[in-house]
Amino acid sequence: MAKHILIAHDLSPEADIALRRAIQLAGQLQARLTLLHVASSQPSPALLARLRSAEEQTLASHLQGHPVQDVQLRLEVGPHPAELILQYISLGNCDLLVLGSHHRQPSPGFAGSVQERILEACPIPVLVAIDPAAPPYERALVAIDFSPCASRALRAAWPLLPPGAQLHALHVQEVAGIHAEDNPDERAFQQSLFERFIGSEFTALPPRAVQFSHGFQSGERHDCLEAALASRRPQLLALGGHSRDALNERLLGSLTRHYLDNPPCDLLVMR
């Protein structure tokens, strides 16, 4: 369970949305919260004072009415925000990084490439928050396959859900839609493998009052996941961030890239 949440804030509206989610989770989990702002160049003392004042006011306005006990504001200076954020995480005292959805505004906003760099290298779960209301999660969907990073995504999503919430783990045996039912024996074999796999994964989760379910489908991965999103309307989608290119495991997978560009809800990515 997350005990220290880091929110990377760049003074953008998207970052304010992410900050609301970080505050909600910090209160729910009784976690520490650190707001980190990276200035791209060494500011003058006057500008530094204005930056700190702006972040303090942002924090104060969003903290009203929320039971977060331990909050810290941290300012860093450097031309490469992603590297400074990753360097702070490498100190080993953060459990969850929260970001806003990427945007194409000029500096000081985090461009999409900064978000991608963080996601490719971040050793802890990254939550990309897009819901302005930021209510506690009631429904979560995990795209689960047999990869270690998908299993880590499931384990990262589990403690973010409050008691009574629902988590559905969906596995897609990827075949072209036109051939989805061509080989029922192969489908039955793959489903049997998945049932054993997901049973083991669920057993490894810490006991919590969260409703767990799972499903197996054959078809095109994107289409099956889109159908699940439409029917289940999750507030949180968890994905493993791997690439299918075994020679370049640091690259984000195409599915993860798609949902980063078109997030249907808050997105949790785990390497």
Give the helices and strands, then pairings.
Blueprint: E1 4-8, H1 13-29, E2 32-39, H2 45-63, E3 71-77, H3 81-90, E4 96-100, H4 112-121, E5 126-129, E6 139-143, H5 148-157, E7 166-174, H6 184-204, E8 211-219, H7 221-232, E9 236-240, H8 254-261, E10 266-270
Parallel strand pairs: 1-2, 1-4, 2-3, 4-5, 6-7, 6-9, 7-8, 9-10
Antiparallel strand pairs: 5-10
Helix pairs in contact: 1-2, 3-4
Describe it.
The chain has two domains: 126 residues, Rossmann fold (3-Layer(aba) Sandwich), CATH 3.40.50.620; 132 residues, Rossmann fold, CATH 3.40.50. The chain is built from eight helices and ten strands. It has a ten-stranded mixed beta sheet, sandwiched between helices. β2, α2 and β3 form a beta-alpha-beta unit. α3 packs parallel to α4. The longest helix has 21 residues. It is elongated, with a radius of gyration of 19 Å. The protein starts with a strand and ends with a strand. One of its GO terms (cellular component) is cytoplasm.
CATH topology of the largest domain: Rossmann fold
Chain-averaged pLDDT: 87
Which structural class do the helices and strands define? alpha/beta
Shape: elongated
* The CATH top-level class label of the largest domain: Alpha Beta
Radius of gyration: 19 Å
Biggest sheet strand order reads 3-2-1-4-5-10-9-6-7-8
Helix content: 25-40%
CA-CA gap between termini: 17 Å
Low-confidence parts? 104-111, 244-249
By CATH, the architecture of the largest domain is named 3-Layer(aba) Sandwich
Number of strands: 10
Largest sheet features: 10 strands, mixed
* Percent range for β-strand residues: 15-25%
Q: Could you give the order of the helices and strands? A: EHEHEHEHEEHEHEHEHE
Compute the number of helices. Answer: 8
Which homologous superfamily in CATH is the superfamily of the largest domain? HUPs
Query: In the residues, how many domains can be counted?
Result: 2
